[in-house]
Structure formats: structure tokens, C-alpha cells
């Protein structure tokens, strides 16, 4: 596809993100990217029990549950900001106005619908919204979450106390030759003793940040209940803000391709049909959930064939070429059927290469099969 070889770092990103969720010996959580919905992007702190129950029913009614979307995740602001912790049990106190029946009752109701429930905490002294967090109380909070019936924990990184600062600043944009200024204020939490990046070969597994997150990982693993520990990419922005339809498609397609969690971050009430069509695209969700090893390039194998994603970063439409000889697993000498995963239609038979017109900021999502071996169908 012209510059396929230059895109390999994204494959490394996919491996990094998919490896961030806890996979316990008790079950299968985290073996595939999580599918679900989270409250933060659209509701912020304006949450209550009704928001999550209504969203759960919409997830079912809109057919998203049938595609595998199963987590209903409570983000920040669910606890009592004043009471913080119970003086006897040391458990985080739930906001009784937002959740008058408790988190455990909400969990029961969601489980009865065949869904799962997620919650939010933070590896610091308070959450990003200023609510009670879990640093120093990991065992208590993990046991509390398990007791309530929680299935998923999103764990954030705000309000890190100075004694937990790292020796070096975390600057991943420099790893692949990026030109970021290490001294710039990038809006990230301050949690390092210096503005200097780590020296070459530094093992981040020995850092204080790694230890902070390991403590909650181990506390969750010690529970009888399996809880997925989420350090992956966060919520989708599909359907939010000023994204064009093409940009929403690109966002979703590439997150699916990189095997990232697909956690919806937009309101399901009165969702636009064209946005729902993106989130409910069966072929892209199936590729995201396929157990085959994650793609290392902008291509990857599944049980249905070879999938290729072509992103147009230009401000204008452009013709893009997929050179079969540059796609891992394909052979320029063979004849292939090219299938459009967005429309669900075959685009024809091709040998050597294939060209497609891609709108500005859009992503072509293609499945390519050798003639006669088309995902179980014969051509």
C-alpha cells in the first residue's frame, strides 16, 4: 500500500494497549478488548443510578449488547466527596443522592439484564475530579469492589504524592524519534522528580508508577471475583464534539484495528443513525474481537481473511493504493477479492494491487481474500 512498512510503530502501540488489562487465572476477562459504554465524556459528574439503567436498556434495545457491548461503566464522581471513607470499615462512601440504592443494587440489576458493571478509581490521593482515590487503600477498595459485584475497574493517574514521584519523566513521544520538547507543559500530571526523560534502556517496571499500579493489580487478583483491570486506551469520542462523520469512522476503524477497547463515550438517547451504524458495524467489531494475534501493521489476519485499513490524513480526498506484495500474508502474483467492511459489499477481483478513493480523514476498511477462499464463501 505504498508506505505500509512505515506504519509498523502502530503495531507496537496495539501490543502495548492490549497488554494493559488484567487477565486473571479465574476467567477470560482481558483476553479480548473490552466492549461497553462509559459515562464520562457525555455526563461528567452529572450522573445517577437512572443514567446507567436507562443506558443499559438502550444498549439492549439498539442491538449493541448482541454485538458484545457488555460493560456499563461508572466513571469519576460516584462517591461522597465530603464523607470520603467510612470511619469503621474504611470503605469509600457512595454518594447516596446519586445512588440511593447503592452500587451493589445497581450491579445486581445490570447483571440481571445480562450486562456487566465497571467503576472508576485512581492511583493517587484523590481522583481527577477530587473524589476519594485508592493509593494506600488498594486491598480495601479491591475487596469492596468485588463485594459490590464490580466487573471492571478503570484506574486513573491523578494527584500523585511527591513521595511516589518517578526518577524520570515519561516521554514516550521521543521513543520513535519524535521532536517533542521534554520541558514543555503538556498538561499531564506532574509525577517525576525531573523534567528529563529516562536514559536509554531504563526499565520502567522498576518505577514508582509501575509499583502504584501493581498494587491494585495484585489486590484485584487476590479477590474471589474476577475484575478486569483497565489501563488501556479510554473511551471512544465517536459521535461527540465537532468530529465529522468521516473522522468518527476513522476513529472507530483504527481503534478496532489496533485491538483497543471499544468503550462508547456518547449518549445513546436519540443517537444519530449514522453514528449508531459506526458503533454497530458487525464486521469491524468482529475483527476487534477476533482472537487472532493483533495486527503489527495497518493489516491483520482474522478467521475471515486479511484485513487492511487505509487512513487518509489529508484535507482532501485521495486515491490510495493497496499493493498486495507489501501486505503481510498476501502475494502480488495471486488474484484476490477485495471486500468493503463498511458497506458489506465486494469491490471486485484484483491482482497485484487495488486502488480506492478515500475521503479526507476517512478510513477504508477492507477485507482481502484469495479467490475461492473468501471467508468461507467461494467466488
TrEMBL record:
<dbReference type="InterPro" id="IPR000111">
    <property type="entry name" value="Glyco_hydro_27/36_CS"/>
</dbReference>
<dbReference type="InterPro" id="IPR013780">
    <property type="entry name" value="Glyco_hydro_b"/>
</dbReference>
<dbReference type="InterPro" id="IPR013785">
    <property type="entry name" value="Aldolase_TIM"/>
</dbReference>
<feature type="domain" description="Alpha galactosidase C-terminal">
    <location>
        <begin position="293"/>
        <end position="368"/>
    </location>
</feature>
<dbReference type="Pfam" id="PF17801">
    <property type="entry name" value="Melibiase_C"/>
</dbReference>
<feature type="region of interest" description="Disordered">
    <location>
        <begin position="176"/>
        <end position="204"/>
    </location>
</feature>
<protein>
    <recommendedName>
        <fullName>Alpha-galactosidase</fullName>
        <ecNumber>3.2.1.22</ecNumber>
    </recommendedName>
</protein>
<keyword id="KW-0325">Glycoprotein</keyword>
<dbReference type="GO" id="GO:0005576">
    <property type="term" value="C:extracellular region"/>
</dbReference>
<keyword id="KW-1015">Disulfide bond</keyword>
<dbReference type="InterPro" id="IPR017853">
    <property type="entry name" value="GH"/>
</dbReference>
<dbReference type="Pfam" id="PF16499">
    <property type="entry name" value="Melibiase_2"/>
</dbReference>
<dbReference type="InterPro" id="IPR041233">
    <property type="entry name" value="Melibiase_C"/>
</dbReference>
<dbReference type="GO" id="GO:0005975">
    <property type="term" value="P:carbohydrate metabolic process"/>
</dbReference>
<comment type="function">
    <text>Hydrolyzes a variety of simple alpha-D-galactoside as well as more complex molecules such as oligosaccharides and polysaccharides.</text>
</comment>
<keyword id="KW-0964">Secreted</keyword>
<dbReference type="InterPro" id="IPR002241">
    <property type="entry name" value="Glyco_hydro_27"/>
</dbReference>
<comment type="similarity">
    <text>Belongs to the glycosyl hydrolase 27 family.</text>
</comment>
<feature type="signal peptide">
    <location>
        <begin position="1"/>
        <end position="21"/>
    </location>
</feature>
<keyword id="KW-0326">Glycosidase</keyword>
<keyword id="KW-0378">Hydrolase</keyword>
<keyword id="KW-0732">Signal</keyword>
<dbReference type="GO" id="GO:0004557">
    <property type="term" value="F:alpha-galactosidase activity"/>
</dbReference>
Amino acid at each position: 500500500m505504498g508506505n505500509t512498512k512505515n506504519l509498523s510503530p502502530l503495531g507496537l502501540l496495539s501490543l502495548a494497549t492490549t497488554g494493559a488489562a488484567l487477565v486473571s487465572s479465574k476467567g477470560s476477562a482481558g483476553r479480548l478488548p473490552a466492549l461497553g459504554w462509559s459515562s464520562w465524556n457525555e455526563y461528567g459528574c452529572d450522573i445517577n443510578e437512572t443514567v446507567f439503567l436507562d443506558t443499559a436498556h438502550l444498549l439492549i434495545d439498539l442491538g449493541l449488547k448482541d454485538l458484545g457491548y457488555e460493560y456499563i461503566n461508572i466513571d469519576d464522581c460516584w462517591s461522597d466527596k465530603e464523607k470520603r471513607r467510612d470511619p469503621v470499615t474504611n470503605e469509600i462512601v457512595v454518594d447516596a443522592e446519586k445512588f440511593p440504592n447503592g452500587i451493589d443494587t445497581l450491579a445486581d440489576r445490570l447483571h440481571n439484564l445480562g450486562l456487566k458493571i465497571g467503576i472508576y478509581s485512581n492511583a493517587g490521593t484523590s481522583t481527577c475530579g477530587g473524589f476519594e482515590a485508592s493509593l494506600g487503600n488498594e486491598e480495601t477498595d479491591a475487596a469492596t469492589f468485588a463485594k459490590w459485584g464490580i466487573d471492571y475497574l478503570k484506574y486513573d493517574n491523578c494527584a500523585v504524592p511527591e513521595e511516589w514521584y518517578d526518577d524520570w519523566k515519561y516521554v514516550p513521544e521521543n521513543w520513535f524519534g519524535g521532536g517533542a520538547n521534554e520541558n514543555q507543559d503538556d498538561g499531564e500530571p506532574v509525577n517525576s522528580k525531573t523534567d528529563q526523560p529516562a536514559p536509554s534502556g531504563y526499565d520502567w517496571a522498576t518505577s514508582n508508577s509501575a509499583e502504584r499500579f501493581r498494587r491494585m493489580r495484585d489486590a484485584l487478583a487476590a479477590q474471589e471475583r474476577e475484575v478486569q483491570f483497565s489501563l488501556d486506551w479510554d473511551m471512544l469520542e465517536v459521535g461527540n464534539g465537532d468530529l465529522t462523520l468521516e473522522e468518527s469512522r476513522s476513529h472507530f476503524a483504527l481503534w478496532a484495528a489496533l485491538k483497543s477497547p471499544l468503550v462508547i463515550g456518547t449518549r445513546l438517547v436519540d443517537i444519530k443513525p449514522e453514528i449508531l451504524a459506526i458503533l454497530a458495524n458487525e464486521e469491524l467489531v468482529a475483527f476487534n474481537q477476533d482472537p487472532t494475534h493483533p495486527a503489527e501493521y495497518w493489516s491483520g489476519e482474522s478467521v475471515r481473511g486479511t484485513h487492511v485499513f487505509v487512513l487518509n490524513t489529508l484535507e482532501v480526498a485521495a486515491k490510495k493504493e493497496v499493493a498486495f506484495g507489501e501486505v503481510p500474508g498476501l502475494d502480488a502474483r495471486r488474484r484476490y477479492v477485495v471486500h468493503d467492511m463498511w458497506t458489506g459489499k465486494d469491490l471486485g477481483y484484483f491482482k497485484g494491487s487495488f486502488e480506492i478513493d478515500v475521503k479526507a480523514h476517512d478510513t477504508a476498511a477492507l477485507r482481502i481474500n484469495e479467490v475461492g477462499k473468501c471467508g468461507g464463501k467461494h467466488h
